[in-house]
Amino acid sequence: MNDTSRAYDVVVVGAGPAGENVADRTSAAGLTSVIVENELLGGECSFWACEPSKALLRPVVARADARRVPGLRRAVQGPLDVPAVFAHRDKMAAYWKDDDQVDWLESVSVDLVRGHGRLDGPRQVVVETGSGDTIRLTARHAVCVATGTVTAFPDLPGLDTVRPWTNRDATAARHVPDRLAVVGGGVVAVEMATAFQALGSQVTMLVRGTKGILNRMEPFAGEMVTEALREAGAELRFGTSVTGVVRENGAGSPVRITLDDGQSLVADEILFATGRAPHTQDIGLETVGLNPGSWLEVDDSFRVTDVPDGWLYAVGDVNHRALMTHQGKYQARIAGPLIAARAKDEPLDDGRWGAHAPTADSAAVPQVVFCEPEVTSVGLTTQEAERAGRRVDVVDYDIGRLAGAVQYADGYSGKARVLIDTDRNTIVGVTFVGPGTQELLYSATVAITSEMPVDRLWHAVPAFPTISEVWLRILETYRDRAAR
Length: 484
What we know:
The structure is a single chain. By secondary structure, the chain is α/β, with parallel strands linked by helices. The chain folds into 3 domains: 174 residues, FAD/NAD(P)-binding domain (3-Layer(bba) Sandwich), CATH 3.50.50.60; 116 residues, FAD/NAD(P)-binding domain (3-Layer(bba) Sandwich); 111 residues, FAD/NAD-linked reductase, C-terminal dimerisation domain (Enolase-like, domain 1, 2-Layer Sandwich), CATH 3.30.390.30. 32% of the residues lie in helices and 23% in strands. The protein has 16 helices and 21 strands. Strands 1, 2, 3, 4, 5, 6 and 16 form a 7-stranded mixed β-sheet that branches. The longest helix has 19 residues.
């Protein structure tokens, strides 16, 4: 082995949270591991998504909560301190330096090669370093791709000349545009619209579909967030597509946006949050018989299904199972020990909820939208349950009726929905909308993954007066309905 040719048990391409966890878990199991990264260790989540976006949103939500508390309203009527918000955002993004991540990687005995990694046939990864060197890495047991996703742009002529914002530009912004157009209605679009409207932008959301925002969640979630955004001053247009964009006076000038109905509007910046595409365009997929730019379809052991001999794995967003950081890390915590077990010819624990089974990717995926009001969900929605042929009772409750909610904020507005599988008497889906509901999500996740019978949940007593008392009220509603 020399500087230009090295062999490891496992080669991981991509050092976001998923890739880091695969490398950590395989190393902890006694395998030699190396990770390849062309950008910052920690990936999108640490520097351009989860961490900086929530730093932007936290003061927005905290101010909204405070304004509902008697005795605090007058103290929080002024505008947000934008430089202070940005300074906190910078701190949470570690000032876009990955020194701590590098130190951690060394502490868990994982090697690092910085550069652009590409597959080069079975078990081979070639890395072009920033200094122009080429390093060939050979994997004895597995190569794991964890390269994540990039912004999916629509096919619009001249879009690149406009230099539109992506999530990276929004979360790392150095100024607040007077007018911000947000194209899309998903999580990124909603969160950034919430943040920048509160920071001082006049936000216009352009949503192609007619079903509203957050349309993969329960309909009432999008409806409640739409109402809150409009009350905050944002404009939301549904059933609207962008057909053209141009900066008429060159770089730095406003963007003129043409819509499919012939109308136009002008914004200082335009953010495209129209979905994600797999970051696989230039990682050598063609050398192992796959199409560049494609999602990597995997089985339940995270092996890429269309590659023979089972040496290629994919975890995190790139496999399209669940595009969330915590799910990518969950997959990695399963894939790492699984790769090690196969390397050592040990038996797999791959039954339902087994140590080597990603059951939660289909049964209990938790999600929080950090907007105002907060939206949290785990498991199935009503529509998903219907499509799957599951017989469920839908139990709704007005969270604002709780004593804990009234204590939390005057005029609290929120809603809970729980889906109960009538055949098994277990909870299979939960959605909460309202201030402070993100802290209810783990209890919902535990209820689903433990498959706890509803009868036993009666004995999980919520403290009074807290918002968690919603669990008791949901069960009472379900009981009273059954008694009629």
